Amino acid sequence: MTLFDRIEIEAMDARDPLRGLRDAFVLAPDEVYLDGNSLGVPTHAAQAELLRAARDEWGGDLIRSWNKAGWFDLPVELGDRIGRLIGAAPGQVVVSDTTSVNIYKALHAAMALRPGRRTILAEGGSFPTDLYIAEGVVSTLPGARLRLEGVDGPAIEQMLDGDVAAVLVNHVNYKTGALRDMAALTARIHAAGALAIWDLCHSAGALPVELDAAGADFAVGCTYKYLNGGPGSPAFVYAAQRHLGQARQPLSGWWGHARPFAFETGYEGDPGIRRFQCGTQPILSMRALQGALAIWDGVDMAALRAKSLALTDLFIQQVEARCAGLGLRLESPRDGEQRGSQVAFGHDHAWQVMQALIAGGVIGDFRAPATLRFGFAPLYLRHMDVLRAAETLEQVLKSESWRDPRFAARSAVT
Amino acid sequence: MTLFDRIEIEAMDARDPLRGLRDAFVLAPDEVYLDGNSLGVPTHAAQAELLRAARDEWGGDLIRSWNKAGWFDLPVELGDRIGRLIGAAPGQVVVSDTTSVNIYKALHAAMALRPGRRTILAEGGSFPTDLYIAEGVVSTLPGARLRLEGVDGPAIEQMLDGDVAAVLVNHVNYKTGALRDMAALTARIHAAGALAIWDLCHSAGALPVELDAAGADFAVGCTYKYLNGGPGSPAFVYAAQRHLGQARQPLSGWWGHARPFAFETGYEGDPGIRRFQCGTQPILSMRALQGALAIWDGVDMAALRAKSLALTDLFIQQVEARCAGLGLRLESPRDGEQRGSQVAFGHDHAWQVMQALIAGGVIGDFRAPATLRFGFAPLYLRHMDVLRAAETLEQVLKSESWRDPRFAARSAVT
């Protein structure tokens, strides 16, 4: 690493069109936070909105806030705001429940739209909750079965047959960061007569997503990663306009009713996206998310993607140059076109290496069994942060500081 | 109303053993809040915990708070704390998702434990989401059917036959406040070979509940009414110890897995109550609830019940004495033994009357089609508040101030 490189990297920050957004975030000055793909950083606006909700709305107007502060409509209001980031026209996205619960709704809706077909396809390499929920759906549908890419067949494209009703697929792989071509795969799925459900947990807010243009049928995603909504903030679900009204899902709670306050005995689903709601939502968490989403007004998604690729390319280049022969294996696609906004390296002692990195002020995470995972949130990271992360990783590996016994103990949550 | 009565009522407040708890709550000095059965009032502790969670945990330790602040174990920790209020020994209650979603889990679990039986019984007068969710469960179980008390038969007790697998019943009716005898009805349900699922939304925190002693099988409830957890704070679900390990529910997300961080491809449910979890929970809302539950340490539930009955008896007595002939009809049981902590009066112009009451600083709510509903939260209400509410209602009805056109417009959320 020459001084010249450092000057070049500082120049990248100086000409970064998104550089002004960093000040909106609550960041520790002495840390490099590369875990925004697990839990995003709060903005000052998100914290301020949460405080207002707790003090003036809950603590002041109390029950009247359902109307006065617009609490009841937050799921559709925030849904439309997220819709703008994922290429969904208004009225197709609602914020509600968790990603897991929303996968359950979407899979059931898709299966009901393809009567006679009994197979769900998913990915063996998926974040596991997608598979666990698909198992749960299968358990409620006689004759249904779940088949997994990489386990029961080589690739989704080659597993599409006349029995496939729904394909549940991740836009960006949670571990490797591998990015799917949404339009191309959706077209293949439709050509086979099946419906496509996209999991956007690792792409919403990380790169441009075009659900409507790709012809996606359903989608789900979380809001606490690149959308910075706060720990466990409510998830979203998308249903394409053409399926609204006819799509049915069995979590038919009162918030999905056509007339929730008429207190009728029988269920009649709302004709729009509200049918994908179920019960009363956690408003404090929802209000923090509302504050968090404000930063996206005016963000150019093409500029976001360009910066994301610049950050991840720089990280791969710096790490490989500095750490050659030190046991790291790139687990993410090298080609930026096939990569989300994260980079994974395998290492035989990944757990300890990550603990040593964290002790050195570089926060990434570990994924079992042996992966170091680094997320690059373009709204608040600088190119110089990437340099510091690579330098710290080099230092940890060269000094073997990760062998310190204090880095061996596993915590409950990884 | 004589001066002597007022002096007597002031004396009731002076000797109230719970009177010291009121100061823990954030209350407007000029209002009487009788809507704690819809949205409970925040405690200063709940707001403080929320602020700490937003600033120091999310904004400071970020991802590390999952371990350091104990976020991941909040559902079971808070579950056990609620368990102490509802007569459940540790390890049987978990805080997760919404009441609606938890009803779905409990009904599925109960149906799977009674193979061959296909009927769910519920109440025609139930809060509707219970019925809507039961419809949703029925839609996923071939041959299953839902029968309603008051619609398909006269009373739950007389509808129990050999096909009934599960009975979903409210401990306290959301509208009338009618209280069921949990032990007696559970025994009848068990004698018929069925399982009992109790909805505690209007009893948890309002009166003593004894799930274990009554032999209940499952229970659900919300935390934003008498438990004051905040708007839409996460709900709870109870499964009796004898059902743990064998009870299955199809919302099999990763938080219910025996080893959630092993990222295994196949689902294996946790052997304990964690199996009733699904996905990542809204931690900010959960932390406010944690702060809210602190006030219950040391609260004598018998004293709580005694005060609740004193408040509701006083309200009925005062309203009936002051408002005779003014069109009110008591819709709650007159006998305190059969009543929860709320009082309902019917009135032909209930909507307008409630708006006029609210304008007069007495906050209750309206329930379609023609009910004035008043909740009495014993932790923060005084007997003098009851007097003022009755006086205000008398004034609104005698002056007919409710006829003011500004009280006619309906809001979206009632």
TrEMBL record, chains A, B:
GO terms for biological process: anthranilate metabolic process; L-kynurenine catabolic process; L-tryptophan catabolic process to kynurenine; NAD+ biosynthetic process; quinolinate biosynthetic process. Pathway: Cofactor biosynthesis; NAD(+) biosynthesis; quinolinate from L-kynurenine: step 2/3; Amino-acid degradation; L-kynurenine degradation; L-alanine and anthranilate from L-kynurenine: step 1/1. InterPro entries: Kynureninase (IPR010111), PyrdxlP-dep_Trfase (IPR015424), PyrdxlP-dep_Trfase_major (IPR015421), PyrdxlP-dep_Trfase_small (IPR015422). GO terms for cellular component: cytoplasm. It catalyses: L-kynurenine + H2O = anthranilate + L-alanine + H(+); 3-hydroxy-L-kynurenine + H2O = 3-hydroxyanthranilate + L-alanine + H(+). Pyridoxal 5'-phosphate binds at residues 99-100, 127-130, 199, 202, 224, 254, 280. It comes from the Bacteria. Its EC number is 3.7.1.3. One of its GO terms (molecular function) is kynureninase activity. Its cofactor is pyridoxal 5'-phosphate. Catalyzes the cleavage of L-kynurenine (L-Kyn) and L-3-hydroxykynurenine (L-3OHKyn) into anthranilic acid (AA) and 3-hydroxyanthranilic acid (3-OHAA), respectively. PANTHER family: KYNURENINASE (PTHR14084). Homodimer. This is Kynureninase. It comes from Paracoccus thiocyanatus.
